[in-house]
Specification:
Elements lengths: L1 H6 L5 E4 L6 H14 L3 E4 L6 H12 L27 H5 L16
Parallel strand pairs: 1-2
């Protein structure tokens, strides 16, 4: 569908993860966007969520004290694993890499 949209001349294209079901198909999407000059972005909009922004501001101001523990619930299956909330907490708190374990780093948050 993303290749079709780029070929149809849409002014821009945002694709929620995952871009496609294979690397080859993802390359086709990117090539179609390049060929037509279509600005392209992919990702999870969570980093722009007002909820995450507000909690980060509260932490930065000290409204809730220094976070010590986070309990986050998420679901995934063996064949479909997607980003859950726990991956965002270390960066939202500003915890240095040497002080944390697991998760994924999202430095732009």
């Amino acid at each position: 569908m993303a290749v079709y949209a780029a070929n149809a001349g849409v002014p821009m294209l945002f694709v929620e993860k995952a871009i496609s079901c294979s690397v080859q198909k993802a390359d086709e999407v990117l090539e179609a966007c390049r060929r037509h000059g279509t600005p392209f972005n992919t990702g999870v909009l969570r980093r722009f969520s007002e909820r995450y922004k507000r909690i980060r501001e509260m932490i930065a101001r000290g409204d809730i004290g220094e976070p010590q523990t986070a309990v986050v619930y998420g679901a995934a299956s063996l064949m479909h694993v997607h980003i859950t909330g726990w991956t965002l907490f270390p960066t939202c708190w500003g915890i240095q890499r040497s002080q944390r374990y697991g998760g994924i780093c999202y430095p732009e948050i």
